[in-house]
Each structure stands twice: as structure tokens, then as C-alpha cells.
Amino acid sequence: MENPEQQEGVKPERKKTPVLRSAVNALLVPALAVLTAIVVGGVVIAAAGGNPFAAYAGLIQGSFGSANAISETTVWATPYIFAGLAVALAFKGGLFNIGAEGQLALGATTAAFVGYALPEWLGVTLPAVIHLPLTVLAGVLAGGLWGAIPGWLKARTGAHEVINTIMMNYIALNIVSFLLNGPMKDPNPINVSARTPAIAEGARFPVLFANYRVHWGFILALLVAVLIWWLLWKTTLGFEIRTAGANPDAARYSGMNVARLTVLSMTFSGMLAGLAGVIEVTALNYRHELGFSTGYGFDAIAIALLGKNHPLGVVLAAILFGAMRNGATRMQFLTQIPVDVISIIQALILLFVAADAIVRYIYRIRAPQERVVLTRGWGG
Amino acid sequence: MEYRRLGFIALIIIVLIGVVVLIGGGQISPAVIIVSMLATTIAVATPLTLGALCGIYCERAGVVNIGIEGMMLAAAFFGWFGAIYMNTILEMSPLPSLIVGVLIAMLTGGLLGLLHAVLSVTYKVDQIIGGTVINILAIGVSGFLNRQLFFESGSVFGGQIPHAPGVLPRLQVPFLVDIPVFGKVFEQQPIAITAIILVVVTHFVLFRTRWGLRTRAVGEHPRAADTVGINVFRMRYANVIIGGLIAGLGGAYFTLESVPSFEPLMTNGRGFIALAAMIFGNWSPFGAWAAALVFGAAQALQINLQFFRELIPPQWAFLQQSYVVGLVPYILTMLILTGIIGRTTPPAADGIAYEK
Asked: Which of A217, B207, B226, B277 fits a 20 to 30 Å CA distance from B260?
């Protein structure tokens, strides 16, 4: 099978202008969607009695105003990159994974368990070369399993993954709550919160900088983004996943096993979401703690859509979202505007990205010839 | 609705009630437990029934709506806010405040329905993405306003959380409450009763009126409907907005009928379970109601087991964990979607935007 990208490289001089124009076009609508969302968000802030300019100034100061602010932004962006890639990969395979939240929680819990319990079981202190990969692998597999189940159900019975991944979210959160309040709870007598004991030294990523919280996970996230790009656009499997996503009938008639691709896409997606949780445990917090509705799952959907399901776009969108979440705390401190306003701006971004016709109408931009198919109804 | 499916529903409900009777039967008479379980089942099935009806109106017209969860959450918040505002600021007495609250909740749902229609019918946005936008928007808006309006200084209520005007009163269904022992099942609150009436009304509207025929035509074969002069866009708009109003009523259940308070994310996936009930009920009102009752029974099990915690025998100790019993509705939903209990068929044009 000939690789379509190689064909494009044959005559670069003829492709140059369209590529440049398509790159501008690809970035234009998301950028305008973000701009519009920020303007509308400003109106909401003003309507609620706040000063939007002060709010946004606080937001920028809090997210990029100092070396520490930038470091914190990357800390926020890291799980967003992984989770955004997870949703984007599933979208590429024609599947809507709303379950990143549950896959993440389960990945984190499993990694924490292997991180603190394995040396106790074996009775020896494991070296990092063995313990860290085992911890990461266990968490990634747990996330992958949690993604594979709805994928398998979809392939086998046609049960729609949207409802099943959401149900798996609630099941995962119930299981994790149970574990973190019961069997896996930190036995330290001063501990009152639902959290695991700290993981062993051997299961931790080394510290990157002494004074800043930015960690190896961010660099790993960028590498994984490249890996996903390579997988999707440079391998046969990636080509098959994209084909099954764009047109499952065509994929079926050309001899691809669509059921297998469905399970694989959801498994990979779950593994990426699980990795988001693993990194939080092994590189940042060194334990898993029950967060109050962190909302990674829904944020990841917005990030994947804003990034047009392209790894580079996802990285940029994740940094934007990380910056907003990070800056919001500073904004609330300076202007008393609740951090929740960020959720509204994010929903508006998603709205304008999804309904790009609205953005095109406002800014009088012509529509592209082809429409991208993202998901299908119950029948699919 | 086929007998097999109906029998399955009856079986699950009997098993769920049976578990509680087995555990608590030694202390309280089984009849009392059964009546209490049935009454709770009908009450907690209310948002699921209404959510499923919302889904039926939307999808029978050919618009997939996974934003029911968000519609209910936003409606729960605005209805609650409206009732408190009426009661505290405008000094209206509690019952009228609550009724205004319910109307505001329905209006909220209707407006979100309008947004969904604009996105999916006019702008032809992928309908599942459109629904997700509504869900995320509802989480953001209700979370933000909840904090801004109730907890910040300088907010409407001066930073003091005001007293809620309570919940809607219990009504007694005439004649039926007089049945000995089982009469208590028919002591329900108004939204629960309305939900059951709406099931009957929706069945009549869909299958016995011109409106229903047109709605179904638009959802099955919009091109054919268009050819004979039915305005596809208008029918879809109207049905999605009607669905939104009903979902709004379902949202009102959470803050004006069930508990007199609002918590972020309090709908807890009920909108999605309602969709599963709709699918299991084969997009028919009575079928969806029956399925909603199954989920209601699963939740009633969780609620009623709390009363009998000490009576649970040690070999069933896992039932003491609310996390474990709490899984039942979600696992039931997944089982039902696999189709092991029989497959159902969605309207043919469900989820496909109509291009004229």
C-alpha cells in the first residue's frame, strides 16, 4: 500500500501554497473561536458584576507572569495533553470517548497501588529501573482495560460508546472512592482524607528542577504527542484506524477488521487517559488522592476538538487550557471572580469550535469543501 | 412492547424489592417494605422518566440529544434560584415561589432545547458534540452562578445563604390512596404525578395525533416528509424545544421536589441513564417509563438498604457499602445497552442533519 504522505512530497513546489493556506485556515477558526469565547466570557463576567479586564489581566499574570507561573501552567497542561490525545485518537477512529475521567482515575489508582504496595509484598526495595516501568505499565494497562470494555461492547454488540464510557466513569469513580476510603486508604493516623499512602522512591520520576514543580511528565507528554502523530500518519495501523473512523464501510470492503480497530482505538485511548493519571501519581503527587470532580474528561473533549484532533493542535490547546486553569486561581485571588468562570469560557470555546459555522458567519470566512465526520448516531 | 422485555423488567424490580424484603423482613412487615420500595421507586424514577420523554420527542423527530443531563442540571439550578429569589427577595409565600421555580426550570430546559436545535438543525453541528456542549455549558454556568450568586460577598443574597422555600407538597391521588395498605404508593409529589401523566399524553400525541405522525415522519424519512409539505426544520425545532421543557421539569425534581438544595453536578448521570431507558423502551413512552422504573428500583434499593444497614447478614457485608450498591444502575444500563435482553431500533433518520 502506498503511503499518501509520500506522494505529497513528490512535488513540493506545487503543494507549497495550498499547504501554507490550509495551515492558516486550520488555525484561523480555532483561534477566532477562542477569541469569541473570551469576549463572550467577558460579557458574562461583567454581567455577574466583575471587571473583565482586571479578570483577564489576573488570568494572564497567573498563567505566564513569572517563571513559576509558567512552570505551574505546564503542570496543569500535562494531564490535559495526555487526556486530549486520548480523546483525539478515539475521534480519529470514529469513536467518542467521554470516559477519559474514569480511565484516568483508574490508571492513577492502579499506579499508586503498584507504587506503594509492591515493595511491601515482595519485602524488598525495588530499584527504579524495575519499579518505575512496572508502575507506569500497570496504570496504563488499567486505563487501557477501562477503555477496551466499551470498545469491545461497541464492536461486539453495537452498544453506543458514549453512554457506556459515561457509565464506566461512574463505575470507576465508585470503585476508586471505595478503595481510597477503605482498603487503600493511607493508614497514617493523622490522615483524614481519601488518599493512598505515598509511593516508594523507586516508583517516582526524578525531579526536573529543584525549585519548580514542572516535571518529566510534561516532556514525556510532548514525546507521546509525537508518537501518536507517528502512529496515526506513518504506520499502517494508524492508516487503518483513520480509515475506519472516516468511513467504516470503505474500511470493511477493503478488508480491514473494523471490530478489531474499534477495540484497539478505544484501548489506546484508554491507555493514554490512564497515562495522564499515572503521571500525576509518579511525577507530581507521589500518591493518589480523591479529587472533587476534577472534570478532566470533559476538558479533554474540548481540547481534542479545539486541537482539531491533531497531536500538535492538542498540545497547543492543552497548554491554553492549562494556562486558564492555572491563571484562574490568581484571577480569583485578585478579583474575587470564581474560578468556575473558566468552565464557561471553555464551554463557549467548545461551542464555537463545534459550531464553526457560527464563527465563520461572524467573521465572514468561507467554509471548507469537505466536512469532517466526528461521530455517528446510535445505529453506527 | 414485547412480553419478554416486560417480563424482564418485572423480574428485576421484583428481585430488587425482594433483596430488601429478605434483609428487613424480620423487623418490619414485608408489606410495609414493598409499599415503601414501590413509592420510592416511582418517586426517584421521575427525572429518568422525564429525561427519557425528552429523548423520545427529540429522537422521534430525528435529533439525538445527549444534552439531557446538562438540561436537567441547568434547570435544577435556575429553578432553585428562581424559587429562592421569589421567596426571599420578593417575599412570595413558599408554594407560589416553588411553582414559579418549576416554570423557570422548564423555561431553562426549553432554552437549552432551542440552543440544541439551533446547533443541530440550523448549523448541522454533529449532534453528539452539540449535546456535549450543552452538558459542559450547564456544568460551567451552574457552578459559576452557584458560587457567584450565593457565596460571594456582594451577591444577590448578600453572601448569606438564604432559606429555601422547602419542597413541593405531597398530593394524594383521589380514590387510589384509599386502597388498604398499598394506598401509600399513590401519595406522590406533583412532578412525579405529572411525569406519569406525561407518559400517557406523549403516547397519545405520538401515535394518535397528526402532530405525532408528522414528528415520526420527520424522524424516519425527512425527505419524504418534506416532499409532502411537512416543514422538517420547524417540526424538529418544535420537538426539541418541547423535549427541553420536559427535561427542565425533570431538573426541577432535583431541587424543588426531592431536596431543597442545589449541589454542583447533582444530576449525577441521570440524564444519560434516561437515554438508556429510552433506548431500552424502544423509543416508546410506556417502554421508557417501565425501563425508568427499573433504574428507580435500583436506586430505591440503595436508599432503603441504608435503613437496614445493621440487619445485613455478614456474608452479604458488601451490600453495606453504598459504593457497591450504587454501581447497580450503571451496570444495569450497560447490560441493557448490549442488547442481551433484545435489540431495539432507533428512528431511521436519528442523528442525521437534514439538508434541504
From this structure: B277
